[in-house]
Amino acid sequence: MNKRQTRLFAIGSTAVATLVFLGLTVDSHRQFPTLTNADKLTPEVVAGKDVWHKFNCINCHTLFGEGAYYAPDLTKITQLRGEQYLTAYMKNPAQFYDEQRHRRLMPKQDLSDQEIKNLIAFLAWVSNVDNQGWPPRPILVTGATIPGTDTTASQKVESASAMAPPAARPVTGGENPMALGERVFRSTSPACNACHSVAPGVNMAGPSLAGVGSRALQAIATPGYKGKAKDAQAYIREAILEPSAHIVPGAMYSADGVSFMPNTYGQSLKPEQIEQLTAYLMSLK
């Protein structure tokens, strides 16, 4: 290839690459309105974005994998937690964890009710953006994840320290039932999060409980359901007290019709703790 041919080849290659790039750019912009749900950008969503920036949430959290890595990615948080849970958490995060035990340092921001509502609307809009599977996996932060989503050595130690009875931490008046239920989830003996994750697709000794609040009704509606529950709340309560009441066909978490899950929670937990745990699990969308 002589100099003239080399020059023509370089010019041609550059032209083709430029055309491909422009084509992809135009196609991307053509799809943006659909992928980003631009028609759902309500004033409430925009106000929620302003709340996100006002309180510097990105200094700890990430959206679409972008931001700080101190706290969990919140891209799909509204698909994992109900509005009641998120509202209670934002009002007083300290209800849901013990800073010394769980090492979370989520500050109490004193958001107004309207700011919380707007922020949830913004996060709901974000969660419905088609992010094409990005990031490819949940970003898990040691010591700062949703309980049960991180299996690092430090959290295993943390989980082991959480095996103390639930009564080990005093309950103060007015605490949210879901917050108390999350505490039971982490601290009862044996601890629920020792076997169950609340992250989608993360199965441990027991199946992931992500979405259990939504899947409960589906389980009741299946032809093979053998329990007595008539609604989602009753199903979750039944699963805690009588884990063998309904065995999911083909699951590897039972043998000969008997669940591997302990059936002693009815004796080790108080009735109010069962209700609190049920309330927390109902919040897992």
From TrEMBL:
Query: What InterPro entries would the database entry show?
Result: Cyt_c-like_dom, Cyt_c-like_dom_sf, Cytochrome_c550/c551-like
Q: Name one Pfam family in it.
A: Cytochrom_C
Q: Identify the domain of life.
A: Bacteria
Query: Which PROSITE patterns does the record cross-reference, listed alphabetically?
Result: CYTC
Keywords in alphabetical order: Electron transport, Heme, Iron, Metal-binding, Transport
Which parts of the sequence belong to the Cytochrome c domain?
A: 43-127, 176-285
Q: Can you name this protein?
A: C-type cytochrome
Taxon lineage: Bacteria, Pseudomonadati, Pseudomonadota, Betaproteobacteria, Neisseriales
